[in-house]
Amino acid sequence: MRRLLFIPPVLMLAAALAQAQGAAPTASTPSTDPLAPAPSAAVPIEDIERFVEVFRRVQSDFVDPIDDRALMRAATRALLADLDPHSAYLPAASAADLRGDANGLYDGIGVEVEVRPDRSLKVIGAIDGSPAQRAGLRTGDVIVAVDGRPVGLRRDDEPSRALRGPAGTSVRLTLLRPGEALPRDVRLVRESIALASVSGRLLEPGHAYVRIAYFEGDTAEELKRVLADLKARAGGRLAGVVLDLRNNPGGLLTTAIECADQFLEGGLIASTRGRSAVANTVYRATPGDLLDGAPMAVLIDVGTASSAEVLAGALRDQRRALLLGSRSFGKGSVQSVIDLGNGDALKLTTARYYTPSGRSIQAAGILPDVVLPGTAIRGLREQDLPVHLAGDAEVVDGYANGVIVEGEGAIAEALRRLKQAAAARAARRTPPRG
User: Fold this and answer.
1) Matching CATH topology for 106-193 and 198-425?
2) Does residue 317 have an active-site annotation?
3) Could you tell me the end-to-end alpha-carbon distance of the chain, in angstroms, rounded to an integer?
4) pLDDT digits (tens, 9 = 90+) for 320-341
5) What was the pLDDT predicted at 40?
6) What predicted TM-score, i.e. pTM, was given to this entire model?
């Protein structure tokens, strides 16, 4: 008599995954993509059996009953958890939040956070003019509770969602601040966050200050408008610009590329490298420097991350700007958001960023030309994050300090350096007498 075996859905899924992983191009259908990964060996049957055994043990013996769908969601999250800090499975609500963030529109307190292994939230930066900034939240703060409830109390929660809510509602944050022994409570009122990502002012006749707080959909257009206004107020031409990228957590890569293009006449801006063909891209500038070559100084610090580092690295490598401040965060990876068809999405790290000189930003950051004093806090860098991607230029230096550079003093020093550069430029253009 033939034995009929019941194959649980989880085993069928595991077997399908093993078959897919083991599938390789046949001799009659060779792969034509030179960047395609080499086929890997099939998952050993012992590993599949071990996975199913763990699944069954949790089903039968865990102290509280868990349905199969919840257990599969947990397994899916675990599949991504050990890849790097920036890959994640996004349920429909979180995926919608991410799409809204890209457009610069959402209700909340206006803060960029990272989820730590204990599910607490470390503040990367507060958006200029947001409730978080007005309440004094700063890089390095760790949010441990929202309205008295520990963040990420349930494993299926997205901890940062607790910070969001309808505009006008109040929220109480409990946070730990480096250097302080006791936690502090901060009360904020949520707002509809639709703030300008670019602002500017004249520091003195001919010299301007431009701040880019983050990169969202229309940041490049905002930058053009701000520069045009400042040039008009300066009589049609700027003698120099201080570009402030401190505490800029990044955002859309394509927007940062467009912003860099506005300061360059040509040449390489950045490149990305990954395993798929679409992840390997070279970005080049087009003619048309909106400043007509006027000197630039760029302010960075440990809060300068991701696409903000791409912009800083392009201007430095192209010898277009002097960088002042402290070493940047070092997030040199690209995340692709993949729609899964049911509203959920997969945020997956698919490439690394490289500066025009070919230097990887990942876990190394951008080093300034001129170091400025600031507040040193441990654990603020990409390379301090658990399971971070290794960087080509990463230097293992232990749990070292990241430095936050705040205040108007840095702007004043950048302006002084700008005027020095302008004077030297004028001297080179002046023909000798006699």
Assistant:
1) no
2) yes
3) 112
4) 999 999 999 999 999 999 999 8
5) 55
6) 0.83
Q: Give the active site residue among 306, 307, 328, 333.
A: 306
Place of tokens 């990420």: 152
State yes or no: is 147 an active-site residue.
no
Bridge partners (DSSP) of residue 201 are 209
Catalytic residue chosen out of the listed positions 84, 130, 328, 331:
331
Quick one: tokens of 257?
Answer: 């590329």
The CATH class of the 106-193 domain is: mainly beta
Which of these is catalytic: 97, 141, 261, 317?
317
Q: Which CATH topology does 198-425 take?
A: 2-enoyl-CoA Hydratase; Chain A, domain 1 (3.90.226)
189-207 burial: b if 16+ Cβ within 10 Å, else e: ebbebebebbbbeebeebb
For residue 430, what is the DSSP state?
S
Instruction: Look at residue 176 in the predicted model and tell me its pLDDT.
Output: 94
Domain range annotation of the chain: 106-193, 198-425
Q: Note the pLDDT of residue 353.
A: 93
Check if 122 is active-site: no
Q: Which residues of the chain have pLDDT under 70?
A: 1-41, 100-104, 154-157, 195, 430-434
Residue 416, classed as helix, strand or coil, is helix
